[in-house]
Specification:
The structure is a single chain. By secondary structure, the protein is α/β, with parallel strands linked by helices. It has a single domain (18-207), classed as 3-Layer(aba) Sandwich (Uracil-DNA Glycosylase, subunit E), CATH 3.40.470.10. The protein has 8 helices and 7 strands; from the N terminus they run αββααβββαβααβαα. The longest helix has 21 residues, at 187-207. The chain has helices at residues 18-25, 60-65, 72-83, 116-133, 143-150, 156-159, 178-182, 187-207, and strands at residues 44-45, 51-55, 91-95, 102-105, 108-111, 137-141, 171-175. The strands form 2 sheets. It has a 5-stranded mixed beta sheet with strand order 1-3-2-6-7.
């Protein structure tokens, strides 16, 4: 396994073009997750000064498709972005970890949270995306993404929608991951969580 490093909040220098970085990521061996994943799932969307949304990792659907946020959580995110008034052509979607980590459950592949070493090993690719895109805003979705972007002191439920000073972008903030809405125990809870998620996105859009 490749040696990991501590998170560095400072911007890094781009290494080649974004297309070259994307191509290099397809052969990533920085941690062991590549061995069980179908493919690297790199970010996609607007190429420059975008609003960047960072999730945890690709899911089963994304792993097979090779695109970020195309499964159920991604569908919810895209609908919520439209509802909150975001221009989808101005958005870049990516994940802190580019390979799907999973555990078998019968014939299903269930999401397994990446550990700290895996997150740090993959941070290079996220740093390169930020360096090339120079986003005017970064929105971390969920705890893994928030701690990757902002460090261990942030708390999603406490800090959601709040601007947090960072050299990475003019606006850096966080909210829940849309998958947490799908995991709510009943329809009423899901509707309430979705309303709050859209409210967060509208608040973030106004801050832009």
């Amino acid at each position: 396994m490749a040696k990991t490093k501590k998170p560095d909040p400072r911007p890094v220098e781009p290494a080649g073009s974004l297309d070259e970085v994307r191509a290099a990521a397809q052969d990533c061996r920085r941690c062991d997750l590549w061995a069980r994943a179908t493919q690297t799932v790199f970010g996609a969307g607007a190429a420059h000064h975008a609003v960047m949304f960072v999730g945890e990792q690709p899911g089963d659907v994304e792993d097979r498709a090779g695109e970020p946020f195309v499964g159920p959580a991604g569908t919810l995110l895209r609908e919520a972005l439209t509802e909150a008034g975001f221009d989808r052509s101005d958005v870049y979607l990516t994940n802190a970890v580019k390979h799907f980590k999973w555990t078998p459950r019968g014939k299903k592949r269930l999401h397994e949270k990446p550990n700290r070493g895996e997150v740090l090993a993959c941070r290079f690719w996220l740093e390169q995306e930020i360096a090339h895109i120079e986003p005017r805003a970064i929105v971390a979705l969920g705890a893994t993404a928030a701690q990757t972007v902002l460090g261990p002191s942030v708390r999603v439920l406490r800090d959601r929608g709040t601007p947090i000073a960072s050299p990475l972008a003019p606006l850096v903030t966080l909210t829940v991951h849309p998958s947490s809405i799908l995991r709510a125990p009943d329809a009423e809870s899901r509707h309430a969580a979705r309303r709050q998620f859209v409210a967060d996105l509208r608040k973030i859009r106004k801050q832009l």
